Amino acid sequence: MRLMNRKTNTAEIADGGKLRPSLREIEALRAMIATGKTTQAARQLGTSQPSVSRAIASLEARLGQPLFARRNGRLAPTAEALALEARAAVVFDLLDQLAAPRSDGATTIRVAAPPTLANFFLAPLLARFIAREPGMRVHVEIGKSTDCLGAVADGSADLGLVDQAASHDGVRLEIFRQARPHVLLPKRHPLAARSELAIGDLAGERMIALSRRFPLRNKLDAAFAAVRAEPLVVAEASTSTFLVEMVRAGLGITILNPFPLELRPEKSMVFRPLDLKMTLETAVVVPARGSLTPAARSLANFIRTEQPESPYSKPSEST
Predict the structure, then answer these.
(1) Which of 117, 199, 224, 319 maximizes the CB count within 10 A of its CB?
(2) Name one Pfam family in it (predicted).
């Protein structure tokens, strides 16, 4: 989609008297994030380098902060730039949907998800989605979070789901759920009587931990070290569902993201929030470059809007 040569009314005023960013400016932002150089961004958009520079400068002036910082000969996007691009992606996906030809045949959406999200969240959600969109078919590949990121990046999946903060140049994350780390423990455990737990409360307790390849495990190890405590890890596992089964079997307690396990509450176990300044995020994974197909965007939007009620996690503020 080439919008740079289209005339855009940049004088349109949004609510509150602020100028809305134009499509020309947002497309320049997306091209700059993709290429890191104004010359390459201009070539990609079929326009001139000064035009790209003016569009970025206009956006920065409107927002009152820089959107790029020079690093190793490239212009690296700031967090504000990436957040703005993520919000604008829906607009470009919608424009692509409007331009896409209508089809009466079934459309297949390829989704990659880790086991816990697939079983506890995605399966019932897809049942509702297909009931609403009977012309859709869904193919789900279940694997590690890193595999899900790679599948979306290389195009073998249209979109994915992850609940571990991870970086990959080929994808971007549309966060839709947030939670604090929670301790899962038997209902009769002495610590279950408290409404909130501190990391020091867990010293000496038998712990079932996530494998060290998960970012959450590394953050929790650092939290224990900060209070000069060492977790008594008696077992490790790579899926949250297995951690739950080990707690059920009486081996110990565990710390994890309550979403989506909270959607199927266990009568014999309880969640207790951990007093840590840490946010665990669950996200839809989409390609970093280009737009989703209309069908994939429809599912991504459905995931972001079909948010369950729960005392343990909440929809992301950007949802």
Answers:
(1) 117
(2) HTH_1
